[in-house]
Amino acid sequence: MATYKEINGTNIQVVSSDPSNPLEGQLWYNTSSNKVKGFIVSPGSWATGGSLNTARRDICGCGTQTAALGAAGYDGVSRPAPQYGLSKETESYNGTSWTEVNDLGLARYRAAMGGSSTSSILFGGTEPGESPSYLTRTDKWNGTNWTTVNSMNTGRQYLGGFGASSTAVIAYGGNPGTPPDASDTVESYNGTNWTTVNSMGTRRFRCNGGAGTQTAGFVVAGNSEPSVTSNCELWNGTNWTETTNLPGTARFNSTTGLQTSAITFGGSAPQPFGGADTATWDGSAWTTVGDMNEGRSTMGQAGANNTAALAFGGVSPPPISSATEEFNSGPATVTLTTS
User: Which residues make Cβ contacts (< 8 Å) with residue 184, sequence separation at least 6?
Assistant: First the structure.
């Protein structure tokens, strides 16, 4: 029978402190803690973070796991016209807790956001009222205040967006309020104006599944009437190209990261509640990883890549959620001793 050393190339070391630069699969016995430990590359898991101050669904999000922004949404609070249950609240996340910052000028939901926690724009969505309109309105965040800037060309709700800052954002898809319900329209924002650019190959709304930059983007799944789609597309700044479909059940979901390093999670199909599925994208293939702790949809998201992401708010049956979860993967030291 082969020994551990013959299989892995190393013995189980006896050390007084954990090695500073272990190899994947390496094992050792720590005499200080009396524990057997090993080094793995974790596929990733979700852990509970600090809750939002205001629970909301259809909330917009952008930024990273340790510097995120969440704004707008539906909080279910009874208010007189014209605001009803729609929210102006904006919150900032520092990796531990959420802090309320300056409000949006107009309460709304089903909008989209692109940029960072200090330089972003929020666009589209539905405004309050008994006969809501689908907005072209765009608001810019400078890290302290919101300012209304030039509007989109096509008003839409349930659209998606991605981009690195408030001067370089893509808006895509959505529901324009007229048949067909799902849109393939794409617009690019340069910090001043919106320009309509080449359309996606698949019409979709409830498509908060986008990642990347203005010239290298990635759109995942969504609702493509009359059904939900698994279709994924790459954006090179000019054209869209279909790529590997999302594995598992077709769904609308939340996605964040880069074109070559993204993560998608939550959502559901065909009902709007309860999804916990999570998958990471490496630029060519999907890997299914651990489920979220709280299955939900229409949540906000933030994250720089597929190893560190943030999910917050949303709806899971029956309540609107304030929960925040943090996804992490990568190298980790684990303790193997159980007693």
Answer: 173, 199, 200, 201, 202, 203, 204
What local confidence, expressed as pLDDT, does residue 276 receive?
92
**Which residue is listed with tokens 């080449």?**
198
d(CA 265, CA 281): 11
DSSP letters of 239-270? Answer: -EEEEPPPSSS--EEEEEEETTEEEEEEEESS
Cα separation, 26 vs 75, in Å, equals 49
- pLDDT digits over 36-84, tens only? 877 777 788 999 999 999 999 999 999 999 999 999 999 987 665 555 6
- Measure CA of the first residue to CA of the last residue in the chain; give whole Å: 28
Q: Read out DSSP for 119-154? A: SEEEE--B-SSSS--B---EEEE-SS-EEEEPPPSS
pTM of the model: 0.86
SS3 211: strand
State residue 193's pLDDT score. 98
DSSP 281-299: E-SS-EEEEPPPSS--BS-
Q: Give me the mean pLDDT over the 263-271 stretch.
A: 81
pLDDT digits (tens, 9 = 90+) for 126-156: 986 655 689 999 999 999 999 999 999 999 9
Q: What is the pLDDT of residue 76?
A: 83
d(CA 229, CA 245): 9
Residue of 133, 132, 110 whose CA lies nearest to 123:
110
Q: For residue 9, what are its two tokens?
A: 């190339």
Cα–Cα distance for residue pair 154/173, rounded to 1 Å: 10
Give the separation between CA 165 and CA 62, rounded to whole angstroms: 10
Q: Which domains are present in the chain? A: 4-42+330-335 (no CATH), 52-322 (2.120.10.80)
Average pLDDT over the chain, rounded to whole? 89
Closest CA to 232 of 215, 250, 245, 217: 245
